[in-house]
Every structure is written in C-alpha cells, then in structure tokens.
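Morning, I've got a small favour to ask if you have a moment. I owe you a coffee for this, so here goes:
>
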Amino acid sequence: MEKYSELLQILLKKIGILDKEKAEAFLNPNYERDMHDPFLMKDMECSCVRIFEAIEAKEKIIIYSDYDADGIPGAVILQDLFKKINFKNFEVYIPQRNSEGYGLSIDAIKEFINKNVKLLITIDLGITAIEEVAQAESNGIDVIITDHHLSQKNIPRAYAILNPKIDNYPEKMLCGAGVVFKLIQGFIKKYGEFYKINEGWEKWALDMVALATLSDMVPLVGENRVISYFGMTVLKKTHRLGLQKLLSKMNIDKRYITEDDIGFMVTPKLNAASRMDDPIRAYELLSTDDEIEAGNLVNHLLKINDNRKVVVAGIVREVKRNFEKREMRDVIVIGNPSWRIGVLGLVAGKIADEYEKPVFVWGRDENNLIKGSCRSDGSVSVVELMTAATDHFIEFGGHELAGGFTVYDEKIHLLEETLSNFYEKIKTNKNETEIEEFILRKDLSFVNMKNYKEVEKLAPFGLENPKPVFRFNSLNIEKIKKFGKNGSGEHLEIIFSDSSGNKKNGISFFSSTDSFSAPLEENKKVDLFATLDLSRFKGKEELRLRIVDITG
C-alpha cells in the first residue's frame, strides 16, 4: 500500500481494502479480469438457446420490463441486441404503475396469448409471479425471468430464471439491468460469431447498466464496481439522442457526468414517467433515434417531473399535519385513498429520512385496491417485516430498504400496530450515517485539486463505497447566502474560514439555516462535515465543499 498517498490509503481502509492486490483491483478495474462468466448463472445456457430459437423461428417476443429507472434501461439493453441482429418481431411492454402496479399481470398475459406470443422475457420482475407465469406457460408462452429481487418460499415454474439471489452466481447484488446485461453477454458469447457481432460490442450498453446500477442503490463493490466504473466512461460518450438532450437541457456536460448527476437529476426525470404519466415515455427517450422526438420527450418529462414535485410536497405537508395529533410507533403506516400511488415511494422516503423510522404509505389505485410503498430507515428489512405480517397483504415485494405492497381493506387499520409489534423481534443494528465515518482534516488548505483527484480515484460512489466525509473543526462562518432558481432561495452557500486565513465556499441544496445540527449565523464558530465537490457551472471550475452537517 506504500505506493499510494497517505490520503488514498486512509480512504481505502475506510471501505475495508487493506492490501495492495485488492487496492489495485478496486482502483484499476479490468473488464476481462473482473467480470464474472455469465454462464455461472444456473439457467443462462437454456435462456440463450431459447432466445436464439425464437429469433430464428421469428416468434413473437415480449420484453416485459418494470417501470422504474432499473427496469427501463434493462429493456433498452435487450432491444439494443435485437436491433443489432435485425430482429423486429418483438414488443416492449411496461405496466402502468397506477393501474396495473408492479410485476406481471394476468390481464397482460391474456393479451399476449391472444397475440400469439411465444416468448416472454421479464426484466427486473417476475420472481414472485407464480400464478402469472403458470398462466403463460400453460398457454404456450415460454417465460424467461430476469430479476434480482428476493424470492418467496416458492418460485415460479418458468422456462428459465436468471436471478443471482437464487443460484450460485458470485455477485448477488446485481441490479435488474445488470442481470439483463449478463444475459446479453452470455448470448453474444454463444452466438456472437453467428450474428457477426463485434467482440466487445456489448460494452456500449454499459451506459444503461451504470444508469440502472446507480439508480437502484445496489452496493458499488465487486462486479457492480466494474459495471459502474466502465459504465460511467460509456455514459460520458453516450450516443443516445434522448439522454444527450436530457443532459443538455439540465446543463450537464456529459463529458463530466457524475453519479450525483444520475441520482439527483437523471433518475427522477425517468421515474416521473411512471409516477405521473406513462412509463413508455422514459423507454422511448432512452431508445429513440429521432432528434425531434427526443426533444419533445425531454420537454414532456421535465414538465411532469415539476408536477411530481408539487404533488409530493402537498402529501408530505398533509402527513406532517397528521403527525401532530397521533402517537408515534416503531413503524409508521399512513395513507389516504386520494393520494397518487406513483409518488408514494418518494413520500415514504422523505418521511423515513426525517423521522428515522420504517414508513409504509398507501393510497387507492384505479382498481380500488389499497396499494403503497415502503421505505426502511436502515433498522429493519421491510421485506422481512412484511413477511412477518403476511396475512395482512394481498401481495408484496422489494428489497431490504424499499418495497411495494397491496393490503386487504379490512387489515389496513391494523397494519401499523401489527408491523410495530414485529419490528422489535426482527430489527437489525441500524447503519450509522457517514458522519460517524468522517476523516478529520486540520484546516481548509486540504481542499485542493491534488486531494480532490485522490478522492475521485474511488469514484463512482454509492452504497458500500460512500463519498468520503471530512470534518473541519473550529471554522468561522464568514457569510451566508441563499440562492435558487428564479430567486427561490431554496439553497444555501456559506463562506467558511479557518484560523490560518484559508477560505472556502460550502453549499447545501434544499436547505435553510435550520437544516443542520446547529443553527447557523454569521461570525459563529462551527465544526463542518462535508465532501469535496467540483462545480463546473457555466464552464467555470470551482472546488468547493458539499455540506453534510454543521455542528456547534
């Protein structure tokens, strides 16, 4: 480890990398060396053969994708392959979040039977769809499930299942699009020569896999590190017209795109399609070859995303008013039949963050069913929690930190008490925030380009590879400025100085002077927790601090 700077050694140790070999592999990923053989997935061989047979027989294929920023990029990846080999007899089907809900639906399966579909490939869903898969298979539709969600006790009797969580594949934490990418890798490995596909062609799809991997909050270590590392490289060169226009409209120079740009800017716009309109719009944006269509789709998604913000803010205000007159339990369950189903995950996330409790938020869908979304604060797996109270749910699914559910009408008012009773039995040791993992720096002279470049060697950052948080003690607040779009003043810029006379700007988006552990005022001594941030606003580079917290 001695070949690395002292700072880089500290950063590597923070994420558990203690020897030179692991450090080299992490800092310098190698595509050929570090990507696992796709045929380590149990059903990869038969999946590739079945797709080949369907293509050669010109059978009708349905790509059935989830409606979020994991499933939709996965659908784009698969259609990339079909377009590459000039196969046209396929359709992309994405269920409506508000009326159909998550997963395979019986009504959709019946429609496919009538259309004489012979092969159905799921993306980011299907592992719990026992009845739906049975309906398809018994009517002559072979189903290949590609998914990464946790299975329940029984699994569907599909033609093939690609899901690293239920077989011996070494990387268990791939996102949904990551699983599809392994399918593409496997197919090209087996049939690439037959279809005259250039070796390494699939790497161009890594922009979509990185987008999904960063959007879906999977750990950015192991194979996901390789995917996100090379995927960010491809994103900076992406040829996708819709994505280029979206980035341009948001003033993001694709050459310098970061994981924060994906998480805070791109993903919400893609997810707005299913939350506020039709998810096929996001798919069209990422897959279109038409410049005019791309521009129209970008404008549409930006508009409905603004509407989404207004709707979410209104529901959050209503939730907080409700909290003023109720007793708080270990688990929060709250809902209103009028709330829009598509935005409830965002509401649950905001409430879970602020109140540090697992949160379940429900509304009524267009079929008069009580549906909702849940988010964990890190203290419990919401899937485990729902499994414990399984008799309350018509269906449920998700990850440890996030899920969706449908509840029996007669059980909804008992749900909070039931989940809270189970909470104590199954809660885990809650993960502390990065603030507890800070790195102490003596003064603001540390904030320079040399150190920024050392930090960036670990990028892209995310789950299990968090952006390093630095602590600066006894700084003086020189000046506090508010800024924002159209003079909204919703963001903060603070000028800090240290005892040696060094000064640096710190920023915090969607914050006020009361947003931190200590209230802010000018000429006050504080301790600052922050990450390093390189702004390129209007082409001007400025190294600054992104504020995580301020304490007295």
Q: What stands out?
A: Confidence is low (pLDDT under 50) at residues 430-436. The two ends are 37 Å apart (CA to CA).
